[in-house]
Amino acid sequence: MAGYDYDLFVIGAGSGGVRAARMSASYGARVAVAEERFMGGTCVNVGCIPKKLFAYGAHYREDAGDAAAFGLTFAEPALHWPTLIANKNKEIERLNGIYRRILGNNGVRIHERRARLVDAHTLDVGGERVTAETVLVATGGRPQRPGIPGGELAITSEEAFYLEDRPDRVLIVGGGYIAVEFAGIFNGYGSEVIQAYRGPLFMRGFDVDIRTHLAEEMQKKGVDIRWRTTIERIDRIGEGLAVALSTGETVVVDQVLYAIGRAPNVADMGLEAVGVEMRDNGAIVVDDRFRTSVDNIYALGDVTDRLQLTPVAIAEAMVLAANLYDGKDLRMDYADVATAVFSNPNVGTVGLTEEQARERYGAVDVYREAFRPLKHTLTQAGDRTMMKLVVDRASDRVVGCHMVGPDAAEITQGLGIALKCGATKAQFDATVGIHPTAAEEFVTMRTPVPEPEAQAAE
Fold this sequence. Notes:
Elements: E1 6-11, H1 15-26, E2 31-34, H2 41-46, H3 48-58, H4 60-67, H5 81-105, E3 109-111, E4 115-119, E5 122-125, E6 128-137, E7 141-143, E8 155-156, H6 157-160, E9 169-173, H7 177-188, E10 192-196, H8 208-220, E11 224-226, E12 231-237, E13 240-245, E14 250-253, E15 255-258, E16 262-264, H9 271-274, E17 297-299, H10 310-325, E18 339-341, E19 347-351, H11 354-361, E20 364-371, H12 376-379, E21 385-392, E22 398-404, H13 408-420, H14 425-430, H15 451-456
Parallel strand pairs: 1-2, 1-6, 2-3, 6-17, 8-15, 9-10, 9-15, 10-11
Antiparallel strand pairs: 4-5, 5-6, 7-16, 12-13, 13-14, 18-19, 19-22, 20-21, 21-22
Helix pairs in contact: 1-10, 3-7
């Protein structure tokens, strides 16, 4: 260890990299971090945090309209987009400073420059050569961009957080969680939104009832979803963009946002030259200890393309630091990780989809309810919440919980604890609900969906 400048050199100061650096330093390791872009990585700067802030604001116009049913009237909401951007930037700058202080207070040296591997133990950091016994790659991912004529005229989610003004007409391309979130955000702020997806139903990988119900609710709110539609070219016309669709139609919008997935951020880092194995999509291959094909080089977080979630990267970092510098022999548990989509309405999910449960367990019981939230009994809005439980029939264990509706993320976090503890349907049934809440529906569903109907949902 003494023969190197550092015991651990971390490339990337996102959530996983910062946690690994801080914890390793707390165990006595000499640690440095290189970050060429911004402290806190994607989540803090162009991901979870600004996205959630935007999503909060996107609800106010709708809430103002609902308030009339409760005897409160407001002037017609008027959006000043630059205020949103300025306040968001202020909060992000505050968080950037917190990350710097966390690292500095733990004795971690920060290099705000690009780091590139020269060999397994040597890095070029902005022209300076440094050495480390162990290297951790935690560089996250980056948005994929379209390879079509005029594709350079489109933006990704990263640029969306810095738009000077709200586009009146926006086309969102993609069907993953980022696409549906931005569709809800721009729709909520008053934009005309078209969402184009190449398949018959978006949110691939989520429970089919979640996907279907969310699509219906988004369409009720005015999002124009075009299924089985791709983009052939984009042309500038005056102040707008003419977008040729695979259906033969051309639409004119102010902005095109591509959300077609993210790719591991591994370009020009020297990984191939030192022998680090990567998959075809660029994801770094690691074992259950996060070790790459080069013994002293590790990787975690989105760059490994496992579960692309900030809390997962943080948990992985805790495991790695404890194993390397605190004498532990831990493994990361990826089962029953709860997650949310901050679409409008929200999605919350934990455990297996119905399809996955049928494949794993064979016989399952499915409980599903859709209802109008109490709030909307006065507003008369058409919004409906959907909740679903998937139960392994043999053991009575609840193996999947899924929800579309307000506060789905907050509710699902508690359900994640229950699933992690192996709760059974009988234990859900024995739990007294809080009335009147939407959450109580999860402990009051008693009648499973008839088997033929459940099978039809596959």
